Amino acid sequence: MKYVAMVLMLFGAVSLAACNSKDKGNTSTGAGGTTTAPAPSPTPTPTPTPTPTPAPDPGPSSFAGTYNGTVTLTVSGLGLSETITEPFSVTIDGSGTVFIDGTPVGQLSGSSFTVSATETVTEEGVTCSGTVTISGNISGDTINGTISSNNLTCNGLPVSATGSFSATRGVGTQSFGAGPLAPAAKGTARMLRSR
To answer: How far is CA 143 from the centre of its chain?
Structure first.
């Protein structure tokens, strides 16, 4: 737009110069013998350049939706380990609240979140208690992230759980697990059964 205005101003200046060169020396004599010069051409008014409007901040509502995928989690304890892959869902509502498998666990910050959930859950006959920390980053319609545990015990035994997840908005079926700790309990149950 700025260049169009400059071209129009240049065209106006050239046209003005051309008109002035044609009129040089031309005068007219009015009644009473007075000589008058030709009327000057109007000066072109430059077109104002519009100020660009900054893009709006997407805010949490642009990330709202349910992201479905899988979590791969390795549970370790007593010299044993078990890796499992389970369905996993992250839901973000219009205000940026993050839900893991239907349980509200924290708030979105920009396009990422780090949330902790302390809970007790029983899966496949194993009761686990502790804190799970889940970190995720949204890029486009996908959330990728990590999961780790702190002070996790399952059936009274100290265990640890670490893993990663990937979930895509609007794809697959929403998981309604027992909460963020459920995969750790399932993994521990399978680990203990394999002994």
So the answer is: 10
